[in-house]
What does this fold into?
Amino acid sequence: MNDSFNYPISIPEQKQDKQPGLETLMNPRPIFENQNCKGSDKLINKVALITGGDSGIGKAVALAYAREGADIAIIYLDEHEDANETKKLIEAKGRKCILIPGDIGDDVFCLSATSKIIKELGKIDIVVNNAGEQHPQNSIEDITKEQLERTFKTNIFGMFYMVKATLPHLKEGATIINTSSITAYKGHETLIDYSSTKGAIVTFTRSLALSLSNRKIRVNAVAPGPIWTPLIPSSFSASEVGKFGSTTPMGRPGQPVELCETYVFLASEGASYISGETVHVNGGNVING
It folds into this structure.
């Protein structure tokens, strides 16, 4: 399914019981690649670290980066089946791919993962902080201390830890791209803690861009709208999944492939004068801010 007019309009009701969810259980499977897109060496011989790169948005970005000539290090929690499938697809493009399972909410893990990447791939040019989790609750009264801490640990602490771990290895011209969300701007009545972390990511991006400008390292963010990834059926009820993305101006959820070119652009020389910005890819919602 390569023609954008053929992207699924609606999603059948479905539910997965464990986060962050498995792509192999999704119906329909997300669309990660447009086979009509040909690489043009925009990222030739770069090395990209992508958290949450086993599936969802991260997988689409990993495949797009490999198509553009980059080698890939994928950090993921424990979705080994999805990760191994992504690795095979990357290697089929003639690029290297290493898989590193673990919890980015652990600063020691982020340091060890970085060391492994440097040892096996030699350098890091691009850091994509993409991994995240969400746990809907009907009221703030239902958000436990444990959930609050877990969501912040993965979604924003993990970005701090990963940047701190990789920064000594990032040279002039390196790029950092963070995945925020439309919820950072619009909020979400059942994702209060998640939306709060995504707002923090926007400010983190702006502040880090200022901090690293003298080192000539660019920092930007992407704020997706409703995108069909494993996190959706593993977060919401079956009936909510069946309505997912229907309220966007385009009337449908987005597919991971519809975001990856934004990440390619931000990592490339084409975005050399862009830093501290958030690019909105959300199906037509107008966001001011």
